[in-house]
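Pilot study result, target chain (571 residues):
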Amino acid sequence: MTIQNTKRIAILGGGPSGLFMLKRLVESGRTDLTIHIFERKQQLGAGMPYSREGANQEHITNVSGNEIPDLVEPVAEWIERVPEDRLRHYKIDPENFNDYKVLPRLLFGQYLAEQFDLLLDQAKEAGLDVEVFSGTEVLDVIDFPQQEKVIVVPENGAQLEYEHVIICTGHNWPIKNEGKVPGYFDSPYPPSKLALKLNHAVAIRGSSLTAIDTIRTLSRNNGAFSREGERLVFTKDAESPEFRLVMFSKGGLLPAIRFHLEDSHLQKDAVLSKEEVDENRAENEGFLSLDYVFEKNFKDMFREKEPELYEQIKDMRMEEFVAAVMTRRERRDPFELFKAEYEQAEESIEQRESVYWQEMLAVLSFAMNYPAKYFSAEDRQRLEKHLMPLIAIVIAFVPQGSAEEILALHAAGVLDLVDVDEKSKVEPNSKGGVIYHFTNDKGEAQSEPFQTFVDSIGQPHLSFEDFPFKNLLENKTISPAKLKFRDPAKAQKELESGNEKVTSNGKNNYYLDVPGITINDHFQVVDAYGALNERIYIMAVPYIGGYNPDYSGLDFCEKASGAIGESLTGN
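Predicted structure:
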């Protein structure tokens, strides 16, 4: 029974974001909350990445148990009570398991689901009124500012009223050509659709963890891995002699490999404080300086820990540091570099010693994510052009098992990588597959046909127009994200060069359109007139990429849920 005068809260999505949000509410100590959780699937906790929508048996996490934020119980403790037959199914030896091991993603999804159940038990014991609507899709959300209420419209048509709604709808890969063009896949998810026998070359756009998901599935359906001594080898099936995988990657680089983290939680306490952000903004016309963040949350980290490296980089600007690292990487064959980094990562894990500069780059990525809304448009452009491509490579943290498979496939002549630039283009072929247009390393224009194409660049940052709850969009409850230019002359040059993302309000103020919607520090949406909405919060990462350019899975869930919980409950 619902207690009178309780605060009614709806959590839209019961994946990892919804899990951490519930944890915050349970831990708040508040007993005057009524919480409704809506989840499209039957399983809670797993979301897309750790369910059949995002993983098969062969897919593994890129984080170990000691690296995930605290839930109800540690992974290692949970493993001790998992039935033996389930562990055998996932090839887990409980006697040889520890918190430094990665897990099969589907098994990790079961861990998250059980943590959700434990939190629901805790909520009941704390006196919270919690109801779960599983197998229920939410069709729309309607805000009523004058009544200070929000209506949630689930698919059964019964409209429900709340004081607060938290949007935790998770990943989304829009379908554009899949289903219309044979052999064209807009993403590798769900991976069951890639259980294909293919006797031809497959084009894979991207070389990220998403591309590795594609590779792990397709390779197993067209061949097999085995051990020859210490070496992993791949053998094609007899019926797939022409099977081949070609990755097309901007920059022509493979991602870096998991290593031992000195701080498994990436020094989250080292991020800039609100006072530091406010002070720097006061000195910079309201903008947060990207150079200041780079100095404080990257270079300064080396002063004591790596003084020799600090001496090398202390006078470098961000662009100079990125150029130095990328140049060193680009000089080497990508697979040779990948093998060398695999060996370095193996030693790092064995010795439990970090590859410190890579760890600090992960810290920087985490640190700059939340105050990124205060960057100038110029700094955002610098971030996207220089730093984000390096971060995307270095902190992918490819698991060792995946790295071994990449090397085995390349050694077998099955996997290649093609370096492409910004002008490369994928043209859907009405007869099936695509024509990949790119310029090769000799500067020659190429147009190569492929019968099968899998877009594997990772979760895209979706636009304002893509927002799923159309009533909020149509009533201007939400607004498109944009960043102001510090220098109007720079913006005018961008306009003159044809940059359609630059706009002006006619008062010599210029803005850069960035993906998704506008939010504040507490992840509350901001309307078209600049007013924050105290009723609606959002943790759905595809729709806030403009103000959160990098998001790191469960770390993001913990950080964002904390900011929302503080706003909602005062704790």
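One observation from the pilot: The two ends are 25 Å apart (CA to CA). A full batch analysis is planned for the follow-on phase.
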